[in-house]
Amino acid sequence: MSDHLIYESLEQKRFDPFTKKTHWVVNEAITDEVMLKRMLHRPEDQHPQIKKKLLEYRAFKQLIDQEYSQQLIRINAEQDAPTIFKNLTQAVEYSF
Asked: Which of 34, 39, 47, 62 has its CA 20 to 30 A from that of 92?
């Protein structure tokens, strides 16, 4: 998944402390004003923290790629959910 889509998705994440549920404000049409006011934009869902975690992930991924390049199977996460699921199940079935 591209960095742009990672930021776009994670920065739109909000947590409702009342229901203990996470919501993505871009994908959900939340019209309840009370709910919108109580939703939290947690620090881990804000740009600086996402950037830090993404840099850590990229460094770790580079090490994994070097060590296990022959065993890795890549799946494009920018596709629709059914296609991602299909590709994932095919990758698991192929590996056995």
From this structure: 62
